Protein: Acetoin utilization protein AcuC
Organism: Crossiella cryophila
Amino acid sequence: MGDRVAVVWDESFLSYDLGGDHPLNPVRLDLTVRLARSLGVLDGVGLHLPVPATDAELERVHEPSYLAAVQAAPTSAWDVGHGLGTPDNPVFEHMHEASALVAGGSLVAARAIAEGRADRAVNLAGGLHHAMAGHAAGFCVYNDCSVAIADLLAQGVERVAYIDVDVHHGDGVQAAFYDDPRVLTISAHQHPLTLWPGTGYARELGVGAAEGTSVNLALPPRITDAGWLRAFHATVPSLLKAFRPQVLVTQCGADTHREDPLADMSLSVDGHRATYQALRELAETYADGKWLVLGGGGYALMRVVPRSWTHLLATVLDRDLDPDTSLPADWIAHTARLAPHVPLPTSMTDECDPSFVPWDNSAEDAVDSAIRDTRRAVFPLHGLDPDDPRD
């Protein structure tokens, strides 16, 4: 599969740097690519260079006045508004250029698929799913996920399914396509009563002809691999089968991990690996193998994100890594110099078993309540029986 996968990467992505001790530190991208290279995951893979998105491409999902504010912000002497200059989204030098480059990377990946040059494509720097049409939010300036989906539609793709496995609700992408029946958005996230941004309830379904194309799986805090995968498999495959997407877009935030400092889920790197493999199978089964892969959140910068996303790259490239694979000595030495206070893992596993019991509509715990809430809200709108485990 390697020759049919477009991997978009360049060190210029590291310029998307919110500065100081901001949680979204680009070191996580650098360490991921270093680890993937050291383990041979990227051997023989020709990398595709990102090209900045144009204003016209960004304006498919963002307001012109917002682009103007982003462009002016670094040199502006007054409050530019639009969610810029906040602790979450501080203004930084060349903010527009860095943000447009991330969005352009996702466009390069999307077009490789739309133009038939690749079946799969990945931009780990992407996944900035919180940015709204007219304002920044949640560390995200431009919503590359939405920009890429809008471009796929402009290229003639008729149905796109977007799956968001970040711990936070994929609110910006949902908002961008809330009234568009061509896009199915599915977000599996920590329950909005317990985590920012406070949206993503099962009752958020889309409007008009798009009712039923916004799907939200709001899960309880502290959920483990077994519960998360149980809920995922109880909802997502059936909806994809009914929707019949031509391209599957996935936002693969790694902040569901038990060590992530910004959330309260309890997944492991092993659970992430199982999730990525499930997404690959879904793309093959329901989207004719067309799979656009984007990064996302993840703030355990040294211990978690590089391992999780190296598994993601390996999965996309069909070069799956044994969880017991040892971390290379050169990578450990480099990372230890950056963060000598952080005890580093020694292998690609958390030694967790990600197996799960499939949902059968018999249990009464919080995970199964979440499954039922989502299925009962949206399944009938797709002609599916919410109470029948076979649907």
About this structure: The beta strands are 5-8, 47-48, 120-123, 160-164, 183-190, 214-219, 247-251, 291-294. The mean pLDDT is 97. The radius of gyration is 20 Å. The chain has one domain: 2-382.
